[in-house]
Amino acid sequence: MPICIQNELPVKNKLLEEGVVVIEENRAKNQDIRPLKILILNLMPKKEETERQLLRLLGNSPLQITVEFLHMTSHIAKNTAQSYLEKFYKTFDEVKDKYYDGLIITGAPIEQLEFEDVNYWGELNSIFEWSKTHVFSTLNICWAAQASLYYHFGVKKEQVDDKIFGVFEHDVLIENHTLTRGFTDTFLAPHSRHTKIEEEKLPSISELDILARSEEVGTLIAATKDLRKIFVTGHIEYDADTLHNEYVRDKNSNLPIEVPVNYYPGNDDTKAPKNRWRGVAYLFYHNWLNQVYQQTPYDLTELGK
Question: Where is the active site (predicted)?
Fold first, then answer.
């Protein structure tokens, strides 16, 4: 089934070129179906790149999905024109009375700040709290996973000496769990972060299941037992060249950066990297959407009850 996005969203043509099935708003409104409603809070500076990465994965589903984008009003985007945000994104005030099957909160390049020092921390707290009664399942990515674990469970983040940067091997810890069903016992996934979570605190949180973990970089996937909150500390949505672009950016800016671990063929940064986690990404998002579809109430206003 297709994914429904705004008619003029620039990333639409790129998705069509990749073979992602997209349906325009006008046509979707004439279909007698209740699509899954997904809200994406996009905190990344390169909005269109993140839109494409996530919509590609959401579009690989037999379900019809309607997607809306959200941005923070308490933060002025430096890399995205205000006119673009006004045309394609909504504010929290515009969605706070709505209900959604799923919410995705992306990462953000602000992990070296304390949570309370982030200029939109108060607004994000309001969204975390709102999601308890207006969203069936929230998927938090990278920094958002750390922020959500801190807000909901008091799990702090810690600075690491060297940036966690590369493609790492992970083990599936719970066999046949809904979110990791179909995964191989070990799989690869990218990470790009300067902080880690308090790993030692996670086992003491009875509401949480740890689903996938790396001996090198810690937990990748965790979720509450009711699947209302999901945490992914890495970036399985990344394109093959995303880590490369980050590496070149930092290198050209004379920032301290090492070659991404287990990323370039032969550890040679002159060779084009390959995407070795694409299958895991598609399967994870398929599993998440399938579970949301099965468990979310048909009448979303029941979430508020």
Answer: 142 (acyl-thioester intermediate), 235 (proton acceptor), 237
Q: Is 4 annotated as catalytic? A: no
Single pTM value for the model = 0.91
Residue tagged active-site, from 142, 170, 246, 286: 142
> What residues have CB less than 8 Å from 76, skipping those under 6 apart?
none
3-state percent breakdown (helix, strand, coil) of the chain, nearest 5? 35, 25, 40
Spans in the chain with pLDDT lower than 50:
27-28, 30-32
pLDDT at site 3: 66
Confirm or deny that 192 is annotated as ligand binding. yes
Q: Where are the domains positioned within the chain?
A: 15-24+33-238+277-304
- Two tokens, residue 44: 């990344």
Q: Which of 51, 237, 246, 286 is catalytic?
A: 237
Structure confidence at residue 34 (pLDDT): 79
Model pLDDT, residue 25: 57
The DSSP annotation for 167-233 comes to EEEEEE-STT-TTTTT--SEEEEEEEEEEEE-GGGGGG-TTEEEEEEETTTEEEEEEETTSSEEEE-
249 annotated binding-site participant: yes
114 in active site = no
pLDDT confidence of residue 21: 55
Instruction: Give the phi and the psi of residue 192 in degrees, each rounded to 5.
Output: -155, 95
What integer pLDDT is reported at residue 226 of this predicted model?
Answer: 96
Catalytic residue, from 170, 191, 235, 286: name it: 235
Q: Identify whether 235 is a catalytic site residue.
A: yes
Which CATH architecture is the domain 15-24+33-238+277-304 placed in?
3-Layer(aba) Sandwich (3.40)
